[in-house]
Amino acid sequence: MTDDRPADPTAAFAELGRIKLGETDLGGVLERIAALAKRTVPGAAEVSVTLVRDAGVHTAAFTGQTALVLDEAQYRAGYGPCLDAAAAAATFSLPDMAQETRWPEFAGRALEAGIGSSLSIGLPVHADVTGALNVYATEARALTEEAMALAQAYSGYAAVALANAHLHDANVSLAQHLHSAMQSRAVIEQAKGILMGGRGCSAEEAFKILVKLSQDSNRKLRDVAAALVESVQNSRRS
Prior knowledge:
It contains eight helices and five strands; from the N terminus they run ααββααβαββααα. It has helices at 9-17, 26-40, 65-77, 81-88, 104-112, 145-199, 203-217, 221-237, and strands at residues 46-53, 56-62, 91-94, 117-126, 129-137. It starts with 8 loop residues before the first helix and ends with a helix.
C-alpha cells in the first residue's frame, strides 16, 4: 500500500541513505527518489527524474503520467527547464506558468495539463550522465522559496544515492560482461583443443579455422566453438 503521508525531510534524507544497492537496481533507486520527493516537497503534485546520457535523454522515473508527458514534450522540442537544469547542474523555478517567458511553449503545455508551477533541479550523477529532479505543482506559486530550498537539499542527497546506484549498476554489468567473456574464452579454447587433436594443427591454425567457420556461417565465434564442443560431447555419449 502506498503511504501518502507527508515525509519528514530528515526522515526522507535518512531513507535515501539507507537504500541497499544489493536489494534493488538503478531503476528501483530512481523510483524511490521520485516517490519520496513527491511526499517530501510541499506543493508537489507529481515528480519525475530526467537522465541525460550520450545515447539520449529519457524520463527514468515518474510518479504520474502528467510528469512524463511534460518531460517528453521538452525532449521532443530539444529545450526546456529540465534539460537546462541537467546541462547546467542548476535550479530553474517556474513559479507561474501563465506568466512564464523563458519557455513559453512548455508553459503553455503545462497549463493545458493542469500544472501551474514547477521546479527543475540539476543532478550531477556521473562523468557521462547528468539528470534533473522535476517537481510539478497544480497551482501557481505553490512551490515556495521554502519548498525550493527543501527540494534542493533533497536533490543533494538524491544525487549521492543516484551516483552510488549508477556506479553499482555499472560494476554489476561489468562483472556480468567479464563472466560472459571468460565463458566465451573457455569454450573457444576447448574448441581449439578439439581441432588441434583431430587435425594435428597448431593453436593458431585451429583459431583461424574457427574464425573462417564463423565468417562462412555468419555466426559468432563463441557460438561456432560451442556447437563444435557440443557435437563432440554428443558423439562421445552415443
